[in-house]
Amino acid sequence: PQTDARLMTVFDIEVAKRFKDLDPYDHVSNATFLDYVMEARVRVYRSLGMYDRGVVGQVVVRQEIVLAIMGGLFVIETVSVMLQVASFRLIGRRIFRMAPLHHHFEQKGWREPQVTVRFWIISLILVLIGLATLKVR
Description:
Helix 2 (55-70) packs antiparallel against helix 5 (112-133). This protein has 137 residues and is mostly helical. Helix content is 61%, strand content 0%. It is flat. It has helices at residues 30-47, 55-70, 72-91, 101-107, 112-133. The chain is built from five helices and no strands.
């Protein structure tokens, strides 16, 4: 199959930082950064004329879900930070002893190698689940 020459182009998409997405040190969090990446990806698809044909919907539905499953531990770590911050700001209490989640387990008395190995095992299981959901063509 031939590759569309437009797909081989390097895109430089400028996405403006929004004030609401910045922390007090003018940093953008990982979750917000991924929003910027998604916004840039949609702009690239629109520039290629693929956005209105339903191609983007198929890519989002199929690949990002598998990516979230396979990288589930990173998703859980990021969500644990977001939950911790939201909980502390809204009700004044923390959900975890410390965020991200791996520090919570260290605070509970687990040794660092124990946390690391268990997270490796969880990651391996999630990757296998993600691979099992892919269709082989």
